[in-house]
């Protein structure tokens, strides 16, 4: 089959690899019908060292079940399923707590030999991991349903961990697809004021459509001052940080209101960060966030897409066939595209 492998920074190729097979009785194999490139795929695109064997890429997918292991009970051949970016058994102590990305049998498709930017995918713990989409669902909804693999529900996770609720003032740092998803999620959860920090007008316009009440293009000290001015000098109850670089974290503690919460879903590209008096301690601020527990939110989100309550698929502004995925990486890296849908 054809699959996307990365061999070094900037070197993405579609090559022939062996088809995945059922390895465990709990596995399923799907034919991938929709995949995409994630903002986090751009991290190795920038800094992957020489990898002669190639790194399999992709962790977001919708597909049709082609084979199931003997122990798979909830899926049937022919089902169309959504696959979260992490697999999980659905039964361990962390899964029962909803922290599915810490599943004792879990893992991330990114690091797996079977990844989603390919024609087929092996899904470990298929019962715990994949969720079937109701038969007969309109094909036009598939891009929005695909965002439930990662990007929309990652924004939603940020908002949930941050405690976004009716009446709260929320600031979102980052106008990438996750940041815009966080805006949409904050709106769903009833936030009163949603300040989006981003400087790309086409993106912040979509942010306004998703529910942002204010847009702040400034960064650094100026950005902090602007958010404080918009909040009567108080800051935001909840800051959703969807970037992952140190300046975004510094911005977050600059604009969080005393007693407020910073919720991070941008994968931190730093190991050490300030927590002292001038950052978190002095404000009694809470720092939370982590890998999104997408699987825990998936069943509730599917009907919201189907009934039109949310339309997160608007983050896709381009579509390319799998064979042209290298161009998708280039378009997203150069910010010519917000998020590219891939059709294997
Ligand atoms: Zn588990």
From TrEMBL:
Gene3D superfamilies membership: Medium-chain alcohol dehydrogenases, catalytic domain, NAD(P)-binding Rossmann-like Domain
A Pfam family reported for this protein in Swiss-Prot or TrEMBL: ADH_zinc_N
SMART domains linked to this entry: PKS_ER
First-level EC class: oxidoreductase
E.C. code: 1.-.-.-
Keywords from the UniProt entry: Metal-binding, Oxidoreductase, Zinc
Needed co-factor(s): Zn(2+)
GO molecular-function term, one example from the UniProt record: oxidoreductase activity
Domain Enoyl reductase (ER) as annotated: residue spans: 10-342
InterPro entries named in the record: ADH-like_C, ADH-like_N, ADH_Zn_CS, ER, GroES-like_sf, NAD(P)-bd_dom_sf
Assigned protein family: Belongs to the zinc-containing alcohol dehydrogenase family.
Protein name: Putative zinc-type alcohol dehydrogenase-like protein YjmD
Organism: Microbacterium oxydans
Lineage summary: Bacteria, Bacillati, Actinomycetota, Actinomycetes, Micrococcales
Gene name of this polypeptide: yjmD
């Amino acid at each position: 089959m054809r699959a996307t492998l990365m061999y070094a920074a900037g070197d993405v190729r579609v090559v022939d690899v062996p088809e995945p097979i059922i390895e465990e009785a709990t596995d399923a194999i799907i034919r991938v019908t929709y995949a995409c490139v994630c903002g986090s795929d751009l991290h190795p695109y920038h800094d992957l060292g020489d990898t002669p064997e190639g790194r399999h890429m992709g962790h977001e997918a919708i597909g049709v079940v082609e084979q199931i292991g003997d122990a798979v009970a909830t899926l049937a051949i022919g089902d169309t399923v959504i696959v979260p970016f992490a697999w999980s058994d659905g039964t361990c102590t962390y899964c029962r707590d909803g922290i599915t990305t810490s599943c004792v049998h879990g893992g991330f498709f990114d690091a797996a030999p079977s990844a989603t930017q390919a024609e087929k995918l092996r899904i470990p713990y298929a019962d715990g991991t994949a969720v079937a989409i109701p038969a007969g669902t309109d094909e036009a909804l598939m891009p929005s349903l695909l965002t439930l693999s990662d990007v929309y529900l990652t924004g939603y996770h940020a908002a949930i961990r941050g405690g976004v609720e009716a009446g709260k003032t929320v600031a979102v740092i980052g106008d990438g697809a996750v940041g815009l998803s966080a805006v949409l999620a904050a709106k769903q959860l009833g936030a009163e004021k949603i300040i989006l920090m981003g400087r790309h007008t086409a993106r912040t316009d979509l942010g306004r459509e998703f529910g942002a009440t204010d847009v702040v293009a400034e960064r650094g000290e100026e950005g902090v001052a602007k958010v404080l001015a918009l909040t009567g000098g108080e800051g935001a109850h909840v800051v959703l940080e969807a970037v992952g670089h140190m300046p975004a974290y510094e911005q977050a503690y600059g604009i969080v209101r005393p007693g407020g919460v910073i919720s991070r879903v941008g994968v931190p590209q730093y190991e050490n960060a300030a927590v002292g008096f001038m950052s978190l301690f002095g404000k009694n601020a809470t720092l939370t966030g982590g890998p999104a527990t997408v699987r825990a939110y998936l069943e509730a989100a599917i009907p919201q897409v189907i009934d039109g309550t949310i339309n997160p698929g608007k983050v896709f502004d381009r579509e390319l066939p799998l064979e042209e995925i290298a161009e998708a990486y280039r378009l997203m890296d150069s910010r010519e595209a917000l998020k590219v849908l891939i059709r294997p």
